[in-house]
Predict the 3D structure of the following.
Amino acid sequence: MPMHFRGIREYLRWRGPGTVFLLSLRELFKPLLYWHVWHIYETDLSRGISQPYGDPIFDVAIHTHRDDLSSLKPQLLSLGELSAVELDKRFQRGDAVAVASFSGQAVGYMWITFASGTELEFDTYWIIRSGEALRYGSFVVPSFRGRGIHSLLYSALHAYALQVGVTRSLGSVSVLNPQSLKLPRHYHRVIAMTLFLARFRFPSFTFRKSFRAPLSSRFSWPGHPPRP
């Protein structure tokens, strides 16, 4: 089978035909508008840390700006998802990263931040309060997906968050990412908010709409700063 057909088949297998249709439709209308839909989850860490279901052959370690990052940074950069400038920005802000490795090579990561201001999309920024943290920016190398690595990273970050005094974690998952949605479903996480964002090109403006909870309870945007 030609390589490009195998790639299409794999993409359909992971995403599903319904999701692929919606993604294609979104790209078709991209010159006019672009949209996202996320489920927002909140996890009470005081109730305990969920046990991971990932393959135990992977090593997971937490890294912060206080560590020697000279060998870690090249590995993260080699995955091709982040720039050196972005890496430095995250560590300087005080963010931490859980990194999953196999035979000494990074194969996946997930970030956590303790500060407000992380952009979800379209000038819409997270509000993080005292005792809270945001999980974001997860990535697993395609050839290692389907082995529960996200669950290993998820549990490791929650354990770290508890150690530094965090009792509630926040996170978002795109409704167009069925594989990532399996993690909160596995742990029976309740959806705290569903958020729809759309940016129109002509005229240029952003539409924001939340369901289940007020948008301003978790996000700020131009003209709507965080409440004190």
Summary: The chain has two domains: 1-30, 31-220. The first strand starts at residue 33 and ends at 44. Residues 119 and 210 are 16 Å apart (CA to CA).
